[in-house]
Design brief:
The chain has two domains: 4-93; 112-341, Bira Bifunctional Protein, Domain 2 (BirA Bifunctional Protein, domain 2, 2-Layer Sandwich). The protein is 41% helix and 19% strand. The protein contains twelve helices and nine strands. The strands form two sheets. A seven-stranded mixed sheet has the order 1-4-5-9-8-7-6. It is rod-shaped, with a radius of gyration of 45 Å. Bound molecules: phenylalanine.
Length: 344
């Protein structure tokens, strides 16, 4: 009898201790190679089997196999334990605390002008007016002549104009030229449209005047459209826009393309009509210009003024926004200062 059995026992004890001490799979692999590999300690001991007397070989061989199987089982168990520990560590490290409050996402908002513009369009839409889109770049003919404002007529002083390099082409000074375009497109059908859009005026930029601003034009044409319709429709709009308790009034005015012409005032929403700086102590705020479409303008649109009549109006969303929110400087609208825009 040699000392092979004893060597096997020592090897097994050593290998089991080494396995227990491994911290990761790489260390485990080193231990496996050292004890169970082809050039490892167990293989070295087994090589000695050949020198044993034949009678002893089966018993020692059996013992060697048992040690090998035990070590392989211990190796597999240790690998599993290491993997489970690695998984648990990863889960702990990557844990998400779902109870933490989320990071705030800064949200954009609609520009105050867009908000008011949409509200205006919605109200007119509810009253059966379609949106008609006209162009920003207009001809002098559409912007002035066909609206009963001949060249050199003093009425042109009302609109300081941006002319382009091209003769007779300008940036529209109001949305009214869209009236002619809508009439020429729909004639001879009845019309009920609003025309929202940007207008441009060659002005000194001050707290009260900008070189660009929105207007919402309105136009109704039919066989029996009267001044009563104009007043009733605009009063209805004002009540929806500013509240049903708000009083309105019409003042006679003048526009070359309407006859008669008027301006509509709404009771000041800041002082409830008592008088304040915004309404200049009058208790009233001017909201829009309006009137019955001038026969000449109807004719220019293709409608026979003996058969058809119509009303038109034009209002400025920025002006309405300024009045509603007591904004004192129109320049805030296009300077894109977030401190201003975030308030709406
Ligand atoms: N176009 C006019 C302006 O810019 C407003 C208006 C429109 C008046 C329609 C009457 C009818 O001041």
């Amino acid at each position: 009898m040699t000392d092979i059995p004893q060597a096997l026992t020592v090897l097994q004890a050593e290998a089991l201790t080494a396995l227990e001490a491994t911290a990761d799979e790489a260390a485990l692999e080193q231990v496996r190679v050292r004890y169970l590999g082809r050039k490892g300690s167990l293989a070295a001991i087994l090589r000695g089997l050949a020198d044993l007397p034949p009678a002893e070989r089966p018993a020692v061989g059996k013992l060697a196999n048992e040690v090998k199987e035990r070590l392989e089982a211990a190796l597999a168990a240790r690998r599993e334990a290491l993997q489970a520990a690695a998984r648990a560590a990863a889960l702990a490290a990557e844990r998400v605390d779902v109870t933490l409050p989320g990071r705030p996402v800064p949200m954009g908002r609609l520009h105050p002008s867009t908000q008011v513009l949409r509200r205006i369009c919605q109200i007119w839409g509810d009253m059966g007016f379609q949106i008609y889109r006209s162009r920003d770049i207009e001809t002098e003919e559409m912007n002035f002549e066909l609206l009963n404002i001949p060249a050199h007529h003093p009425a042109r002083d009302m609109w300081d104009t941006f002319y382009t390099m091209v003769d007779g082409i300008l940036l529209r000074t109001h949305t009214s030229p869209g009236q002619i375009r809508a009439m020429r497109e729909f004639c001879p059908q009845p019309i009920r449209v609003i025309l929202p859009g940007m207008c441009y005026r060659y002005e000194q930029i001050t707290a009260r005047s900008e070189i660009q601003f929105h207007q919402v034009e309105g136009l109704a044409v039919g066989r029996h459209v009267s001044m009563t319709d104009l007043k009733g429709t605009l009063i209805s709009f004002a009540h929806r826009m500013f509240g049903a308790v708000r009083r309105v009034r019409f003042r006679a005015s003048h526009f070359p393309f309407t006859e008669p012409s008027a301006e509509m005032d709404v009771e000041c929403m800041l002082c409830e009509g008592a008088g304040c700086v915004v309404c200049k102590q009058t208790g009233w705020l001017e909201i829009l210009g309006c009137g019955m479409v001038h026969p000449e303008v109807l004719r220019n649109g293709g409608y026979d003024p003996a058969v058809y009549s119509g009303f038109a109006f034009g209002m400025g969303p920025e002006r309405i926004t300024m009045l509603k929110h007591r904004i004192e400087d129109i320049r805030y609208f296009w300077t894109n200062d977030l401190r201003f825009l975030e308030q709406f």
